[in-house]
Predict the structure.
Amino acid sequence: MPAPVSIDEQLEELLVGEPPAVAALVHRLRAVVRAAHPDLRERVNSGWHGLAFHHPRAGYVCALFPRDGGVNVGFEHGGDLPDPHGRLLGEGRRTRDVRVEVDAGASEEDVVVDYLDLAVDWALDRAAAAKGGKAR
């Protein structure tokens, strides 16, 4: 039986055809997400061409999608989230994205974390409500 392929190896395979600046941005945003919410589990989804993040209790929260020279940070229930920075794309949809360009500065990381915090909180509240419990 072959050894399992690590997330790092799967991610490298996913990014093979991406420009180096886009691949570097995916890695940078991955580090930001992991630092902000170390309890999130990662899963490479080659069908969606992205790196998904799942909360152990709340399920799928968001993903990093390399697209057209940048990265879309897609939030599963982005349509239900507040939009404090006016950056959520995809009006009227369940999923909404925050676009990060390759030349983005460190302030973009703070924006991503703000939306990530909102998404995790929302997902935890939703999971608790589904189980008939209280919100966090």
The chain has a mean pLDDT of 93. The chain has three helices and five strands.
